[in-house]
Amino acid sequence: MSTPRTVLVTGGNRGIGFAIAEEFVAQGHRVAVTARSGNGPEGTLTVKADVTDAASVDAAFAEVEAALGPVEVVVANAGITRDTLMMRMSEDDFTSVIDTNLTGAFRVVKRASKGMLKARFGRIVLISSVVGLYGSAGQVNYSASKSGLVGLARSVTRELGARGITANVVAPGFIETDMTAELPEAQQAEYKKNIPAGRFASPAEVAKAVAWLSGDDAGYISGAVIPVDGGLGMGH
Q1: How many domains does one find in the chain?
Q2: Is 142 assigned a catalytic role?
């Protein structure tokens, strides 16, 4: 069992973010989630925030700090997709995904680092994707945003590593969520054929990896990309 920490998960109202928040609650941490709408799991504090707006992020942190204390663990999970082939992709399709998924993570990490530097302790986990390094047709915007998180984590590691702060990336593959459930059977079977494990992951499997990286046992791991993808991308 890790030391109880104050944890903030962005985009914690559904899917992987919801599962991550649930896992931290189950492990006895003080957990807050940000959401644009909806709520996090039972036992969490939900604060409204939009990661594309630095003032909104700052206000959310202030609210969490007042209620639960300084944020010691931050999980940057909030993300959007605007999938389409590059030839059809508008500039707004590209920049809006970068602004949420990559610049949004920067805003969150920058704000979190203030308290972490003061405490000389911090765990930063960025939720990327197998397509960040593996690539995916129709997702140049999303893929670029998700690979950008790797450079972010590694540079943060070099800046803050001596202060007891780690920054790592978790790269999920195909996860059983509402989105994958809506895919046609044939398409699901085709995807599974390329995954050595032969199945999709449960959101809980991603959450366990995030919680471990955030815990006492992972203090000497930083700048790493941890794939949770059944062997699909293997970190590349």
Answers
A1: 1
A2: yes
